[in-house]
Amino acid sequence: MALETSPEQPAPVRQVALAISGWVDRLGAIWVEGQIAQLSKRPGLQTVFLTLRDSVADISVPVTATRTLVDSMNPPLVEGASVLLHAKPSYYANRGTLSLQAREIRMVGLGELLAQIERRRQLLAAEGLFDQALKRRLPFLPRRIGLVTAPRSAAERDVLDNARRRWPAAEFTVAHATMQGSRAAGEVMEALARLDRDDQVDVVIIARGGGSVEDLLPFSDEGLLRAVAGVRTPVVSAIGHEPDQPLLDLVADVRASTPTDAAKLVVPDVAAEAFAVASARERLRSLVLTTVAREQTGLDALRSRPALADPRTLVDRRTDELAQLRERARRCLGHQLDRAADDIGHQRARARALSPLATLERGYAVLQDADGHVVTSVGATHAGAAVSVRVADGRIHADVTSTHKEPDA
Fold it and tell me: In what order do the strands lie in the sheet with 386-391?
């Protein structure tokens, strides 16, 4: 109901504000489509503040939502996302501002596509399909490079030209496939399987130029991702440009930012490698020359020593030492022999002094009867007995004619 006012009877501000609030309340909950322009999550508050902007006109409206509603969204709500809100308009009379209280938020258009891709990414990540442990290293110099791309495309030209510029002998097997639309994922899988069966292909590049999220959607297809994860040949993903990141980039063994970058990753630069070989050869030559010079200096120092300058000096010195040692040994042996001879002479003299024969040589004799017993007393023999006298140089056989005992014996 319209307010009746006049210059004589104007309506106070509070009446106008309350009237607007009543009209807005009668509008009820509505569905609103727009784009998130601002998103503010303040610490400690359970309310999230957003700004919803019209996608065509320069018009925006503030929106409030519970933190639980915003945090429950998958993928997370971000600035720039297109959304569909079920919200209740509210007019704050005290501040004279209009806002929407969101009750439900849905992704629409590009936002919905991104949400589907994010859910798929989380599912495959949980399966371990993106695990770094599954990534294979690219060969240093592949025998043959497989390339999956659209026929006569800029991506094909970039890969072939840049790879052959870096390594002129690079060989390619190109498998053409549709790189956009509903048939793209299936044709790329067929081309990939065909290249994977070729034993000469050491690496496969899947290349496409840039495009919108919708254009790159086939490269987030679950079937294609599982096919890439299942092949034996390392796969390089070269889809789009640097900001683009379809899920193929995550499952591939190597991600290239552009098709040109893919060519740089799969083949080395022949000029750089030739320079590296030349540098290594020069370092090796320098090392060998330095080693030889050092050893030659050491050899010259050894040869300059007197012993090596005239090797006979060393022999002569050793010869003199040997003669001195021989003479010393001879003197020591002679002294030892002399002392031994003296010892033998002494021992011989002592032995002779103790020998009965020495006593006999002094004029003594040993008298023995016929049985060989020594006769020490006249009572041990008798006249007519046969005796034997042992003297220094032999025996004398005699017969006893008589015996006589000394009175003092």
Answer: 366-369, 386-391, 394-399
Got the DSSP string for 121-152? Answer: HHHHHHHTTT-GGG--PPPSS-SEEEEEE-TT
Nearest to 113 by CA among 222, 209, 220: 220
**Nearest residue to 51 via CA among 38, 32, 66:** 38
For 241, list phi and psi in degrees, rounded to 5: -120, -175
Q: Whose CA is closest to 265, among 292, 235, 221, 299?
A: 235
Residue 243 has pLDDT above 70, yes or no: no
Read off the DSSP letter of residue 382: -
Separation CA 88–CA 76 (nearest Å): 22
Place of tokens 């639980």: 68
Residue 207 has pLDDT above 60, yes or no: yes
Q: What integer pLDDT is reported at residue 188 of this predicted model? A: 93
304 or 274, which is more confident? 274
Nearest one of 219, 292, 216, 214 to 250, comparing CA atoms: 219
Q: How far apart are CA 64 and CA 34, in angstroms?
A: 14
- The pair of three-digit structure tokens given for residue 312, joined into one six-digit string: 């006979």
Phi, psi of 11 (to 5 degrees): -90, 135
What separation, in Å, do the N-terminal and C-terminal C-alpha atoms of the chain show?
Answer: 192
CA–CA gap between residue 56 and residue 70 (Å, rounded): 25
Q: Which tokens belong to 34?
A: 């727009």
DSSP letters of 288-321? HHHHHHHHHHHHHHHHTSHHHHSHHHHHHHHHHH
Looking at 80-239, which runs of residues are DSSP E strands? 82-92, 97-107, 144-149, 172-176, 201-208, 235-239
Residue type, 147: L
User: Which of helix, strand or coil describes residue 344?
Assistant: helix
CA distance 63 to 32: 11
Banded model confidence at residue 244, pLDDT cuts 50, 70, 90: low
Mean pLDDT of the chain: 85
| Residue 154 DSSP one-character state | H
176 CB contacts (<8 Å, ≥6 apart)? 148, 149, 150, 151, 191
Element (H, E) at 210: none
List Cα–Cα distances, 381 to 123, 139, 230, 360, 397, in angstroms: 143, 130, 136, 21, 14
